[in-house]
């Protein structure tokens, strides 16, 4: 007798995808509201990790995918995965997910372009949510329908030109995963990221 696996229950697995999208949306707003310090660093790193997770979910793997990886076509049978990974993903691997010498020496040596990083992923999220919204067995499970509607409304705010395009508050957040260069008369760890506005205007 065939033993069912999580992959046999896409309606349940979908909740994990919805969680990742929700966290990406929530943390990018949290970065905007949080001044420089460890909390700002934590929100920014959380945002980058969730964006990295979604980017890998939507990108066709270069090699053989791991058998337990979720793919969009597990939920939408005719989904076509993109073949080119966002250029910032490699930086997320090196500077956030792993402790490597690729990290910048000081915080001001680099900046995360959060708008250009988030926009293509959020566009994929919107396309995916639009597709799953029309699949009844996915929407009839738990709160999936409500969550999909809520996330699509949130994504609509970010995908407006003023939110991710021309609005300067979402353009970048300076920093990398490493301590900031001390200012004159300053000692100790102050958090790797200076404050920088990200998120839609309120």
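Sequence proposed for the structure above (202 residues):
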């Amino acid at each position: 007798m065939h033993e069912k696996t999580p992959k046999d229950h896409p309606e349940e697995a979908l909740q994990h995808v919805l969680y990742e999208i929700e966290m990406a949306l929530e943390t990018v707003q949290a970065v905007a509201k949080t001044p420089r310090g460890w909390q700002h660093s934590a929100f920014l790193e959380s945002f980058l990790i969730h964006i990295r997770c979604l980017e890998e979910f939507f990108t066709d793997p270069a090699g053989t995918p791991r058998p337990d990886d979720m793919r969009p076509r597990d939920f939408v049978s005719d989904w076509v995965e993109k073949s080119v990974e966002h250029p910032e993903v490699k930086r997320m691997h090196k500077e956030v997910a792993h402790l490597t010498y690729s990290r910048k020496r000081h915080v001001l040596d680099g900046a995360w372009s959060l708008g250009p990083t988030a926009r293509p992923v959020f566009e994929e999220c919107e396309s995916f949510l639009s597709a799953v919204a029309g699949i009844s067995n996915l929407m009839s499970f738990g709160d999936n329908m409500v969550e999909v509607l809520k996330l699509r409304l949130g994504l609509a705010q970010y995908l407006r030109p003023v939110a991710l395009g021309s609005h300067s508050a979402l353009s970048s957040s300076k920093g990398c995963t490493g301590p900031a260069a001390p200012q004159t008369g300053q000692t100790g760890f102050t958090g790797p990221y200076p404050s920088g506005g990200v998120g839609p205007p309120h």
